[in-house]
Amino acid sequence: MNTNFKKCVATLLLTALIIFSFNTAAFAQLYEPTAAAQAVDVVVVRPLGIASQALGCVFFVASLPFSLPSKSVSTVFDKTMAEPAKFTWTRPVGIVN
After folding, report:
1. Residue 95 is assigned to a structural domain of this protein
2. Which of 30, 36, 52, 73 pairs as cysteine with 84 (C-beta 3.0–4.6 A)?
3. Are 17 and 48 in contact (CB under 8 A)?
């Protein structure tokens, strides 16, 4: 049961991140967030962002044996660590872009 729970959480996390990545910055500039959107962002989306940072850290460390010889550590770091951090900590509350 523990394995099924982990798979379910991982699937939900990846699905949420994929869905939220389809919004554009232009939409965010035109969109005035409502109180409900801000509440969902703080209660649901930000914790998912924190979880994606933890998962990205695991993937980054696991990829080091492959990215070091190919000299692509900075690219892997950007995709697995920097982008989830920007998504979680630097965007305005209630705007998912």
Report:
1. no
2. 52
3. yes
At residue 20's C-alpha, the angle toward residues 31 and 90, to 5°, is 70
- Please report whether residue 18 resides in a domain: yes
Dump pLDDT digits (tens) for 25-62. 555 556 688 888 889 889 999 999 999 999 999 999 99
Residue 46 lies in a domain: yes
- Is position 36 within any domain? yes
| pLDDT score of 97 | 63
What average pLDDT does the structure give for the chain?
A: 83
Tokens standing for 46? Answer: 């930000």
